[in-house]
Specification:
The complex is a heterodimer of chains A (112) and B (112).
Chain A (H helix, E strand, L loop, with lengths): L4 E3 L2 E4 L5 E6 L6 E7 L6 E7 L14 E5 L5 E5 L8 E8 L6 E2 L3 E5 L1
Parallel strand pairs in A: 2-10
Antiparallel strand pairs in A: 1-3, 3-7, 4-5, 4-8, 6-7, 8-9, 8-10
Chain B lengths: L3 E4 L2 E5 L4 E7 L6 E6 L6 E6 L5 E4 L2 E5 L5 E6 L8 E11 L1 E6 L3 E6 L1
Parallel strand pairs in B: 2-11
Antiparallel strand pairs in B: 1-3, 3-8, 4-5, 4-9, 6-7, 7-8, 9-10, 9-11
Classes of the chains: A mainly beta (112), B mainly beta (112).
Chain lengths: 112, 112
Amino acid sequence: GAGVSQSPSNKVTEKGKDVELRCDPISGHTALYWYRQSLGQGLEFLIYFQGNSAPDKSGLPSDRFSAERTGGSVSTLTIQRTQQEDSAVYLCASSLGQRDAYFGPGTRLTVL
Amino acid sequence: GQQVMQIPQYQHVQEGEDFTTYCNSSTTLSNIQWYKQRPGGHPVFLIQLVKSGEVKKQKRLTFQFGEAKKNSSLHITATQTTDVGTYFCAGPIIQGAQKLVFGQGTRLTINP
């Protein structure tokens, strides 16, 4: 595809349920980032994948959050036992190394 | 912790006034990037600066990279309502792995 895609675009879930958010980066981009953005706030770094290196998970807020990147391409962010404070827009971005990053449209997660 | 700081966090101006946002890093950066996020949208890459003291212009936007490559600024001349949004700077920083680290952003609102 021409850009980074994310699915679903919107997700409404009940507290305590698990959710999976998907990111399809630009083909060939070695780096992939996940960020979280609450309304009117900045970008909260969650996790970073670079090539075959171990992911940088330093931004994950709790052990309920995990992410994987299969085959160096598609990534899935999983949130277990969702809480209301998890409600936010989850943004994925990809880049070639530390060059300019291309963001996807985001997944808006609402936990009721 | 956060090593790329942006000020101000918010800025409200009258249409036609100038606007400047500043970005500071605690370490020397190999490059600095600027992004714009329109309300309801996702961050979009604007420009990258690489050289010490570099100045680049995009129409009414002027980007500067400091001589020490630790700070940068974005100046908008004669703001228009289309300039509304949040402006982020980002630089490659070693936080665990070397990755692109974003500032907190400056949210610009404009009174028409």
